[in-house]
Amino acid sequence: MTMSIRKTLLSASVSLFALFAAQAVSAQEAVFVLNTSEVGAPTYNPIKANNLNKATTLIFDRMVSQAADLSYHPWLAESWEEAPDGMSWTFHLKPGVKFHNGEPFNAATIGPWLEAFKGSENAYMTEAIAKVEVVDDLTVKLVMARPEPNMLYNLSSSFMSVIEPKSYAALGDNYGVTEVYGTGPFKLESFTVGQETVLVRNDDYTWGSPLAKNAGPAHIAKITFREIAEDSTAFLELKTGGVDMLLGVPADLLSEVKKEPNLAVLTLPGQDVYYMPINVTKAPFDDIKVREAVAKAINQEEILASVFGGIGSVADTFLISALPESHVADSAKIHYDPARANALLDEAGWVMGADGVRAKDGVPLKVSLWTQSDSIFRRLTEVVQAQLKAVGVDAEITTFDSSMIRDQYKTGTQQLAVRSYDWDNADIVDWFFGADRLGYPNISMFNDPKAEELRKAAMTGSKNMAERVANFTAYHEYVLTQFPMAPIYQPVESVAYNADRLVMPEVLNASAMGSVAVMDMEVKE
Amino acid sequence: MTLPAPLRALRRPAGAPAGLWLILVILAAIAAPLLTPYAYDIQNLKSAWQPPSASHWLGTDEFGRDLLTRLIYGARTSLSVSSIAITISVLCGMTLGAAAAWFGGWFDRAVTTVVDLTWSFPEILIALILVAIIGPGTTGTMVAISVAYLAQFTRLTRAQIMTLKGETFIEAAASLGAGNGHILFRHLLPNALAPVLVSAMLATGDAIILEATLGFFGLGAQPPVPSWGGMMSAGSALVFKAPWIIIFPGLAVAITVVAINLYGDALIAELDIRARIRRAV
Amino acid sequence: MTAPMLQIEALTKRFQTGGGFLKRPRAMLAVRDVSLTIAKGEVVGVVGESGCGKSTLARLVLRLLEPTSGRVLMDGTDLTHLHPSALRAARKRMAMVFQDPYSSLDPRFSVTDVLTEPFTVQRRPLPPGQIAEMLTAVGLPPEMATSHPHQLSGGQRQRVGIARALALRPEFVVLDEPTASLDVSIQAQIIDLLAGLRDQMGLTYLFISHDLGLVRYFCDRIVVMYLGAVVEVLPTAHAKPRHPYTRALIDSGFAPDPTRRRAIAPLSGEIPSPFDLPPGCAFAGRCPRASDRCRTERPVLDATTHPTACFHPL
Amino acid sequence: MSALLELQNVSVAIGSAQLLDGVSLKLERGQTLGLVGESGSGKSLTAMAAMGLLPLIGGRVSAGSVRFDGQDLASLTDPQRRALRGRRIGFVTQNPMTALDPVQRIGAQIDVVSRLHLGLTKQAARARTLDLLTQLRIPEAAAVTEAWPHQLSGGMKQRIVIAMALAGDPELIVADEPTTALDVTVQAQIIQILAALVREKGVALLLITHDMGVVAQICDRVAVLYAGRLAEEGAVAPIFSAPQHPYTKALITCIPQEGMARGTLRGIPGAVPSARQYPSGCRFHPRCAKATAECAQQTPPLIPRGDGQAACLHLPEPAQ
Amino acid sequence: MYSYLIRRVLMLVPVFLAVSLVIFLILHFIPGDPVDNLLKVGSSPAARAEMEARYGLDQPLPVQYGIWLSRVMQGDLGTAIVARRPVSDLILQALPHSLRLGGLALLFSSVVGVGLGVLAALNRDKWPDRAIMGGVLLGSTMPSFWLGLILMLIFSVWLGWFPVSGARSASALVLPVLTIGLGGTALVARITRVAMIEASGRDFVTLLHAKGLSPLRIQLRHVLRHALIPVVTILALRIGWILGGAVTVEVVFARPGLGTLLIKSLSQHDYPVVQACLLMLAMAVMLGTLLGDILQAAMDPRVRAALA
User: Fold this and answer.
1) What's the Rg (C-alpha) of chain D?
2) Domain that residue C2 falls in
């Protein structure tokens, strides 16, 4: 008996040890950590995804590439012409491009690809296209239903990554999950959702974006994208050499990164805005005075300095400051103004009580403040809570898991929340404040007739870019004056990497970390 | 005149420091506002991240709040949540366990099966699922913890009563003509009480850890109310930058739970019920 | 002989164990078809080895266990089918003293609590001075009323147990091996006490014991049980045994007299498992007089003044 | 030639409690010594002292010496003491139900003794075991060696324990209440087996019992312990016919005997004292009918009487 | 013995049914609708109905349970709603990591725990005993996530001996195994010590001494063997506990495994995945109890006899 137990234990331990065959790490391999906001993105199907991670940009190419100055450049489309009335676009495609599964990329690809958007999550991207005409093998003409000045932006967005239509049709829901084929510099080797994605180099690749020095193939042979939910864990991995690059470093960690001699930081313009949505339908926020008061109670400078270590900038509109639509009238911008906040609350009948909480008719000014469980949100929200308390608003924090909070918003019971978005186009105003999306994403429940008119003009009533900018600026400005939210902070995108391992391109001409950067990146031997 | 057992336990070698620590923690939790010049919720962002110093004995957190102050207030949350949860658990568990032992038959079998199975299930999982159902916050945590430990007290009570049912004094009472109620409430439950209460005390220690773990997942008490778990959760994000934020609450949990265990052991020895507790596990 | 105080009629108790999911239960007859009449004032002894069913019989008589069949009549009232409330009332007239004085008292009860319990249970007022009186009656100092069981010796506990049993002045007392866990010097005290109380209060005893010597000293009539059944009823304590098993029990005792040394001739063999009884006489396997008939046919008590269940009585 | 087992003025303590106080005993080869007394009198401690097993229960010999065949056990090394146990001294415990290792087969448990002490091979040890079992009249010995303890009855187990005690071919068997846990008829079997061992193998037997009947029937000498002290010691016949110590006398009359009239059994008043509160002077005096004020103060010394000795301040004059 | 085994395995059937029902029901009490996660905002009720029909969420609960159970029986755990892939794929990806971590932690706590328990028992009430039991107590009272972070801070950050997180190399297992293992070690050491001490006091041990066997041989060959019976039983019962206890540790060390999968899908209301994870853990618990019973029977003939 004893004997047999001993044997069993022995064999059990032997087989257990055999289970972990250590993975050898060779030189032209790199390990990247995805930004925490991208953790758990379930698919590499750009058409049906709400959330795509950075690896997507290496698997797929896009028709148009966007430079750091937000200008548009060729990629899979070598050139294009827009009809003067904006009712059609003609694209000339790059010859010799092949998908990972060997299928050619040509004019025949475009029709089925754009067709796939119909009824999908991202259908709005192609809404304005009436039909696709194949002119010749490498030329397509998009006939528009209405002018779409945003066409090039959409075509440069990762949601319009060019997929391989045949396998897309054949794989159905598995496309982007088990298999995925694009024309990008890397092929998907394995994908474990929430854990890691392994990409291997596409050795046939020669059609890289002109924004990169290297048109292909890439220098790095294999890239592993790890998903680490905790920023601090990710940082420790970078610090201890476990990974080579963090695709997103929260501002409060930057000072730590800078302390390490072997680590370097690459700063790109940010596309995020942190803000506080205010539910306009929930008392006391049905009173615009109270909305304005809480919006002006937020001390953006203090938050920038203390929570984000002074990195990035304050947000005073809903849009990132790089967008022209953010240039609204100064009066519409929302700044910290405690005197005004207090005055407004007094005016609205909320009288300061002895306990530092305002009250009206014996009802204390208690409101709910929702946030998500990521550490940066929790910290930011606690500061917001304290700042609201300073003007006599008692906000009670409820923390939800980041993926769960969306369901909660759909119930419409929130009053205040702290959240962020990541988008570099003005149509995000429509997305978050359009009356057709009440509940979610319009968690402010903002439904204003005048805003709707302005929105319609902005979304569909612009014939060209200049008009679109003007319309969106007006819409944006009006929304700001109604205080359905309070802007807080606008970060920069910081990428931290191990300078002993990675050589970054000297100049990075891209609006974000992605294919352009990786093409010119090298691993030190 | 003999002292009651809880006081006698204080005179044992390990029971003394353990009991004193517990008394200290409880008193500190009660008298929190008197003990510290700082408020637990007023932020002073300029003095964030300060290591332990003369003005902040345990340093400050990421909002510049005094860590010692928050630790003391955190004791309030952690101790009250876990002890209230365990109290609920004990009350329900004793009722259920006594009913199972008393009525026997299919009811007993059903209760035993369910209880044994949940008992083998890790408490943290039960608690996590329950918090997911109820929603985060103090109430959710309390309910989750009390359900997580329900199996333990049901089992224990049932085992105690099953053992006691075999004792001759129960038969003696029956031979006098005692009814079920008399036997249950005069003999069985009072005798089952001591082991259950002592286990409840030990379980309170485990519950403190469980509460901290839920807090770590951000599911416990919501800010700015401090709880030990919540503090560690916040501290975990920057463990390398300000390790004191996570180290001290962790030590508070560990020392308090050690103290509960040592004092509980002393109490068990004093009440001479070790065998009864062990047999029931 | 006066009118019977207690009549036991064909009492049988069947225990079932081990039944479970997909598992065949096993049954045993702990008490098989036992009939007995006890007259008022009589001391009847029941003797036998472990597993003979004597303790089960004691509990059946007081209806602490429900019999499988048969009945018990007390002064003509059928106890076995009495309604619970009537049974409680009937319990005033009967009582039991238990074997283990260590577990028969609730450790949380003081002596006063123990002695008050019979009155509480029967919802009768506790007469003033009753506790002290009861303690004195069983030879304990009244100061002991505040003691708890763990402060008492085994003999003292047993005295408390006796006081509790007699608190409501019962007429009939079952003594279930009241001295088995006590030292011999204490055993003698307790027996002496029980004898004295019987005389004072006119009690009727059913005395259960494994010690034939003690039973023969204390009892008027002796019932010998073997594996659940009565094999012999000795009409007087010193009647000559007729059943070979009773003979063997007597021979197994050691006389404390070195001048009367005798060769020990113990019974061979073991007591069979009660779950697996042989078809004939249960004692046949160990009996020096057993014949083929004994192994196939079960003997019954003969209807003599000295009833014996044996085909080959001595 | 020295006695086989001799306790000279042995005191035993566990922690600070002195549980056995100056006990002297002598057991010659081939003899049976009965050690009687009520619970708490120190009988089992005496057995443990004789076996050198006191450390197991946290006890120690605090004074006096235990000599086996002239050797002081205290002067031996641990291995030397172990070489005695099982080899020259066999041990039979009180409760056969718990005396056997429940997860080892019967045969192996007996074999180990002769393998360890007699250096027998596995096969030889088993042959010896079978032989012993047959001698103890255990039917189907071979099957029994393959059985597990729980498959045997109490009487059978006690015979196995006796076989284990005999396996080293000992000169002395210490039997600590070997029949207390057994049924009446089985008790007789076991006592008969032990008596036969003394008679047929010439083994000496230290028989610890509370049953004066057993002592009267099979012992050569008897020692009566009360509250950790020796009350009386001597040959069986004179002690039973004319007990010197009041306790011995009371003990004998406590047992109901054939033909005893009802009401004659009185017992000994009071209770056996616990080791924590031994009375001063003669420890029996609170229960003794003959006790005087002197008894409460003076510890009675052991005084020779006949070929034995007794410790009482009121010993009767020696009979002529 | 065989009939017992068959009976014991058959007994798992009703238990499994009960457990699966509980798991199925509990998850329907969790607020939040997974379909909301999938639907585009502003989708028509028809689209919603279609989505619900697709995942069978439009059926009455008992029907949903029946369908789910029969699929589970065929090894089809359904499709993850949020992760959009067969649940079995997710489980199969996670399971080896969990088994590796849980298995090693179990091994660690058994070996170290038994060792420490024996050492403590052999030195009962002396300083090694006190030191071991004190250390073990302290080890078991530290929240595992805290311990994990502290170990990470010391061994990965300061000393740089082990990777901080992940499961990319064998060395990444060391800290997580230690973190879970220490808690288990406390349990095992405590049970072993008590069981050894209890077994040492049994009559048959006295008799072994009386046979002249050496104390060490008695302790290691006889007493330990007895002590291992409760140890093995409790360890087997706690298999699920160790797997589940890995939940926090997996999260702290960002390791793949059932724990992280469960936490993630729980927060995403990905019912099928949560159900499958819980089912896996419940099966581990049931297999653990089964294993415990079998081991107990294998180690103790009395138990075998009682079962026959």
Assistant:
1) 20
2) 1-17+26-40+50-92+204-252+269-314
